Amino acid sequence: MSDLSEKLWLDLAKEYGTPLYIYDRAKIEEKYHKLTTAFKGKDVRFFYACKALGNLNILKVINKTGCGLDTVSINEVKLGLKAGFDPKNIIFTPNCVAFDEIKEAVEIGVHINIDNISILEQFGNYYQDNYPVIVRFNPHIMAGGNYNISTGHIDSKFGISIHQLRHVLRVVKTLNINVEGIHMHTGSEIKDMQVFLQGLEVMLDIAREFPNIKILDLGSGFKVPYKDDEKETDVEKLKEIISGPIEEFQKERGSQIEVWFEPGKYLVSEAGTFLVKANVIKPTPATVFVGVDSGFNHLIRPMLYGSYHRIENISNPKGTERIYTIVGNLCETDTFAWDRMLTEVNEGDILAFYNAGAYCYEMSMNYNARCKPAEVLVQGEEHAVIRRREALEDLLRNTIEIELD
Q1: What is the pLDDT of residues 61-72, one digit of tens each?
Q2: Which overall architecture, per CATH, does domain 272-396 show?
């Protein structure tokens, strides 16, 4: 959880209004330091999966830590460049994009990660061995906290099936493609440490078919705690688990291999807090609703994934606990939490949603013609708006009004 105080949150809510996203720079830096400390002395690199939270200022914070950047669209690549990332520290891992987008990324000079045989063939025909690529494989491992965020199972659209390895090898050999690495990502919210080991074993078997590769990209999926009884991925233990097989592989081939990880949620989830105001308290025969000044247009994860966010009434932290259902203000079912224990909530109270740094603002929208909230970055004693609150003019910005009969 963020280390910022409830008093500061209340002050920020008063100064900037609600709904409001707040990010703690120190927490982001702390999480990155934890990763680098755990893997100190190992040939390991980290690339932040910026789809988790892509505000330009957050990317600048990430860049200053020394972390690389994992991108999934050409515009994310360009945002990375604007934030100061060297192209050599950016991975481009698109899915189902046109080949023109791949060519644009090559012109920029980033690492290219290909997860489709058709694109691999086009790449080989166009570039031959003139530009190195990473090939993403689907290891057929079911992992992750929800089916929608599991990316390595047999029905997933991501990656080239390991059962198509022979096809990939034929394409690579025939078109003389320079494969610099192989990649996998089984999904987010992986709780079982053995999943990493299982995936690693699959990847090392594949790596033996590519004698010249120098990169083994194991994706991420590091667990972050959402509830008090949950624990995050033990990165020290992860290092111990994967070190042995990798060292044996390196001895076997007589050369070093660089291991890459792509943490997204792990770096920013706990740094983010989402503040909303209780507009109404509505008792019904079944429950007591707390209706807040937001909805799934600002934080969709509970409705999309059934995800859990700890919620506290920071206006009345020592009040009597009662059971509430917290809902939004959309003309749609948009429940944030069912039958949740909160200290007594009164209209006008400020509620804080924890773990709001990853996939929250990033997935926001303008449903019901609602404007997106502001984002604030806290840096020690200082804080500043890093994205202003939208207004009606923003909703109309790209609308072309025409004359109608």
Answers
A1: 999 999 999 999
A2: Beta Barrel (2.40)
